[in-house]
Each structure stands twice: as structure tokens, then as C-alpha cells.
Specification:
Keywords: Coiled coil. The chain is of the alpha+beta class and 190 residues long. It has 4 helices and 4 strands; from the N terminus they run ααββββαα.
Length: 190
Amino acid sequence: MDISKCQAYEDEIKLLEEEIKLLAEQCEDIQQESTFYSEEEILMAIKAFQSKFQRESKEHESRSDLKDQLESLEADLSFLMKFTHIQFTSHSKRTVERTRNRTVQKHRISGKCHSLSFQLEFQLLEMQDKEKVSTVITDLSIVMESGEDSNVSKFVSRTEEHGDLLKFFRSLSSYAEWYEHRRSTFLHFK
């Protein structure tokens, strides 16, 4: 055998022996670390892992609960849209200001009720003190296709002053229904 080949084999054997020695030291370190922890510490680590696993499973359950709630809310919204004939075509929300106990959001909503289109723009001020949360609507602006009806203009002005969205939607629903009846009646006589 060639001397250079022998030398190469001996060098490789030395490298392998050093690697074995290093791995043996690492193995001893790992064994010492595992014996370093007491049974109590190991049990505490297991309990911490189990509680983390239980929290994750609860989160998973809450996600399925949220999905059920979302489906229920969508069904309720569909019913209300059929009942009131109010259909929202777009909604945008932008947070204007946020502090620890106060949030201001700007909302823009477009929609139709029967054949009347409307657009709302308002700010929602949400204040939280201790356990109570209160909301106030400010800067309400309503744009409606009402033709030249002065009563609607007065109603819209009063609603903007008071910021009463519930009253607006209730009145819009009944006004739009009768507006449709009047329109179809006038078309019939033309």
C-alpha cells in the first residue's frame, strides 16, 4: 500500500476519533442536564405544557363558537334586511383616535331602501370607564335621494342634529315603502 494512502486513512481515523469523543461529551452533558432537574421541576414543566395545550384547545373551541355566532349574526342580518328592505352596499371604518379609555372611529355607510339610496357618514366616540362602555354618535351627515320633498330635508336635518341613527332607519324604512307606493301609483296613472 502506498504511504500517502496510509497517511490519509490515519488522518481520517483521527478525525473520526475526535468526532466520537466530542459526541460522547455532548451525550454526557445531555444526561447530566436531564438528571440536573428534580422530579418536581419536571412535573411543573409537564403541567405548564398541559395548561398551554388546554388553552390552545379552548381557543380552538372559542373559534368554533365564534364561527357559530358569525353564522347566527349573518342569518339575523339577512332577516332584518328582508324585513326592513334596507340593504347596505358598502361600509368603511377608520380609527381616527385611540387612547387607553377613548376611541374615535369614522364610519361611512352606503345603501338602499326600496328604491331610495342613502349615504351616512359619522364618527363613533367610544368611552370606557371601569366596566362601563358608552358610545356617542357625532358629526352625522346624511345624503339621500329624496327628490324635492321638503319634509324629508327637514327630517334629515333634525336627525343630523340629534345623531339618532335608530330613528333614521325606522323612518327611512316606512318612508321608502310609501314612496314606492306613491311612485307606482303615479306611474299607473301616467
